[in-house]
Amino acid sequence: MRIGIVCPYSFDVPGGVQRHVYDLAEALLAQQHEVSVLAPADEESPLPPWVVPAGRAVPVRYNGSVARLVFGPVSAARVRRWLTAGNFDVIHVHEPFTPSLSLLAVLAARDEPVVATFHTAMTRSRAMHAASGALQLVLERLTARIAVSPAARKVQVEHLGGDAWVIPNGVPVQRYATAEPLPGWPGEAGAIGFLGRFTEPRKGFPVLRDAFVTLAAQRPGLRLLVAGPGETEEALAGVPAEVATRITFLGLVDEATKARMLRSVDVYVAPNTGGESFGMILTEAMAAGTPVVASDLEAFRRVLDDAGALFPVGSAPDLARVLGEILDDPSRRAAMAQRGREVVAPYDWAEVSRRVLEVYHLAIEATPRPVRPVRSQPRTRTRTPVLPVRLRWR
Q1: Does residue 373 have a pLDDT over 60?
Q2: In what order do the strands lie in the sheet with 247-249?
Q3: pLDDT(130) > 60
Q4: What value, to the nearest 5°, has the Cα angle with vertex 174 and ends 169 and 175?
Q5: What is the pLDDT of residues 213-250, one digit of tens each?
Q6: What would the pLDDT profile of 61-105 be if each residue is shown by its tens digit?
């Protein structure tokens, strides 16, 4: 099968959607499908051979964060050329409402079936209401929709009309399970981990920082390992000097180092304050066999499925209490790790990509096109996905 995948966010900067697109492409390629990914990226950037760069992105404040997007006539022309050259059996766009390549690809598609994956659980807003006409035009061009979580699907049902298959973000389980810890970690006194843009408010790092200050005063030698971009001086504001020496910042890390980082701590903490529709880092930590403590967000509760410990959103004292209890109980940590491995098994990319391919096949069947050979492996159906998909019959 010839598959065209569109990522709206820059491949030059790490992110959850970018990682999802990368791993999905790798999983499909491993099954002998032909895959081309169109993404914002500098043409001089080191990219896999199956990525087509669509130009350098510009930072834009979007969905409570800073996204790096490309848009405009030049980008639209690049999308059209890519579609023509690809002659795809199916086009798979991610976040089609984002003002970037995915939106342009939906509008430029001709007779190809278009599958869209929605990652965010955005709520009804004035902006969405004002743009409802344009959004409806995009929705009408979609053949099938996928949501990465029940929260993301809820937006489809309640605010956009129609439904979506729920197919979660995947995780390369074996990569995390077999990673080697970083030298000297976690150590005998214990270690806590955090990964993300630690200066972005909704990631909740200040909550963890304050909880760590409390714990560090009671536990000599306890350390905090932080990976991700941001200004360390800002992150350490108000932290006593002695405690600050026990916080290690790795900066931006590649995938191999991220897996090693998650294997290097006794507990991983996700102190996010909101805006999460899934929580990919939770599945990665569980795949690494690391116990998880997370904010009591609906998306996190669904992903953890009782494999982790929760604390009230934004409460540093409660986080410190929960972390203290888990650090003092090795048997509980072992049980959490084992439960996490069980929970994360269905998220392995081998299973997730199989479910995505089922949606591709349904979209192709629902889209009359000029007769031409479709190169594909024999289709096998072991079970149907969990929710009905909305198909556009033409």
Answers
A1: no
A2: 247-249, 223-227, 191-195, 267-270, 292-295, 309-311
A3: no
A4: 85
A5: 999 999 999 999 999 998 999 899 889 999 999 999 99
A6: 755 566 778 888 999 999 999 999 999 999 999 999 888 999 999
What tokens appear for 306 in the block? 């009782």
Amino acid at 302: R
User: Considering the domain boundaries, does residue 393 fall inside one?
Assistant: no
Cβ neighbours, 10 Å, residue 276: 25
Q: What's the CA gap between 156 and 158, in Å, rounded?
A: 6
Residue 213 is predicted with a pLDDT of 97
Cα separation of the two ends of the chain: 22
Buried b or exposed e, range 302-315, using 16+ CB within 10 angstroms:
bbbeebbbbbebbb
Task: Tell me, yes or no, whether 234 and 339 share the same domain.
Answer: yes
SS3 267: strand
Per-residue pLDDT at 72: 87
Q: Would you put residue 314 in left (φ > 0), alpha (ψ -120 to 50) or beta?
A: left
Contacts of 150 (CB under 8 A, 6+ apart): 166, 302
pLDDT above 90: percentage of residues in the chain: 69
Tally of helices (H runs) and strands (E runs) in the chain: 16, 15
User: In angstroms, what CA-CA distances link 176 with 157, 268, 329?
Assistant: 34, 14, 24
CA gap 59, 269 in Å, rounded: 28
- Please name the helix (run of DSSP H) or strand (run of DSSP E) that holds residue 62, with its range, or none: strand 58-62
Domain CATH for 123: 3.40.50.2000
Number of domains the chain is built from: 2
Judged against a pLDDT cut of 50, whether residue 392 lies above it is answered with no
Q: Is residue 375 part of a domain?
A: no
Q: Domain range spanning residue 28?
A: 2-170+348-365
Residue 309 in domain: yes
